[in-house]
From TrEMBL:
Residues 6-236 form the ABC transporter domain. Keywords: Antibiotic resistance, ATP-binding, Nucleotide-binding, Transport. It holds the Pfam family ABC_tran. It is found in: Cell membrane. It is a peripheral membrane protein. SUPFAM superfamilies: P-loop containing nucleoside triphosphate hydrolases. It comes from Spinactinospora alkalitolerans. This is ABC-2 type transport system ATP-binding protein. One of its GO terms (biological process) is response to antibiotic. Transmembrane segments: none annotated. GO terms for molecular function: ATP binding; ATP hydrolysis activity. InterPro entries: AAA+_ATPase, ABC_transporter-like_ATP-bd, ABC_transporter-like_CS, ABC_transporter_ATP-binding, P-loop_NTPase.
């Protein structure tokens, strides 16, 4: 395996009595996108804050671009890019001036700052709007400008904290292709997202955090395979029937779980569908809808986070 660009070992972070991270390890290699998933409060922001040197860990170690995040914080900061939901763009300035300003702050000469700015504006589809005040940009354009700004220093690792939250489908698709290009150019990308579709599409590997621990780690395909190859999705007319169905199916040896209005039953082969239907029928439970689905990342996420972390 290539040497990881981002590497955390046994990270612990406590806030007073709250253990936000409880021994988290992960790694991201050059050219790889790691998707970090977890419910609100799972510890994602805390982890990203430690890796980007905003806060120190209480225990464990982390290295980014070969430097220790605690002992060599300044070196780490020079080698990473960070972009997120909250744009660092100054909306009173034009897109072009924003990038030139950041490039100059990073120490580039006037001419180099211009050249880098032009290249990034072009790459991010912002060349035409470059002279307009950023206040006139759409949400998607602002995110792209923010991401462009975080790449001015040619970072080895990029941290994206929910970069597409609130964007429309077109804005999201545009940002996805930028992330794909970043990875293709050899950047290590750590992406936190609430959109499982986004992780499925972009991430080479996924780490699911639950209550400050790694609940699962692998490619989307590996995580889905861990759930069984198929799932039966059932709808019932009432909550009482949903509860009864969960009980009956568990007694019959299945491992069903509730996902909103749906009851989902992972199965290993299509023939097991008959067993699901027979068990329900024998208890007088009649689903209003039945479908046989390939597991989605949503199913994996629901299954992992409904149980206490291991
Ligand atoms: N500064 C702080 N002081 C006290 N507790 C904190 C602090 N920051 C985070 N926590 C707690 O640590 C836990 C993890 O929080 P964190 O923000 O890392 O989760 P998250 O996965 O990023 O959630 P979200 O998706 O809502 O952003 C939570 O229980 C949170 O309340």
């Amino acid at each position: 395996m290539d040497r990881p660009v981002i590497e955390a070992v046994g990270l612990i972070r406590e806030f007073g009595g709250v253990t936000a991270l409880d021994g988290v390890g992960l790694h991201v290699c050059a050219g790889e996108v790691l998707g970090l998933l977890g419910h609100n409060g799972a510890g994602k922001t805390t982890l990203v804050d430690i890796l980007t040197t905003l806060i120190p860990p209480t225990g464990g170690t982390a290295r980014v671009a070969g430097c220790d995040v605690v002992a060599e914080g300044r070196e780490v900061r020079r080698r990473i890019g960070v972009a997120g939901q909250f744009s660092s763009v100054d909306v009173r300035m034009s897109g072009c001036d924003n990038l030139v300003f950041v490039a100059r702050l990073l120490g580039a000469g006037r001419r180099a700052a211009r050249e880098r700015t032009e290249r990034l504006l072009e790459a991010f589809g912002l060349a035409e709007a470059a002279g307009r005040p950023a206040a006139e940009y759409s949400g998607g354009m602002l995110r792209r400008l923010d991401l462009a700004a975080c790449l001015l220093g040619s970072p080895e690792a990029v941290f994206l904290d929910e970069p597409t939250t609130g964007l429309d489908p077109a804005g999201r698709a545009a940002l996805w292709s930028v992330v794909e290009e970043l990875a293709a150019e050899g950047c290590a990308v750590l992406l936190t997202t609430q959109y499982l579709e986004e992780a499925d599409r972009l991430a080479d590997r996924i780490t699911v955090l639950s209550r400050g621990r790694v609940a699962a780690e692998g490619t989307a395909a590996e995580l889905k395979a861990g759930l069984g190859s198929l799932s039966v999705s059932l709808s019932f007319g009432s909550g009482a029937d949903r509860g009864a169905a969960l009980r009956v199916l568990r007694e019959a040896g299945f491992d069903p779980y509730g996902d909103g209005e749906r009851t989902v039953v992972p199965i290993d082969a299509p023939r097991m569908l008959a067993g699901v239907v027979r068990s329900l029928d024998a208890s007088g439970l009649e689903p209003s809808r039945i479908s046989l689905d390939e597991p989605t990342l949503d199913d994996v996420f629901a299954a992992l986070t409904r149980r206490p972390a291991p």
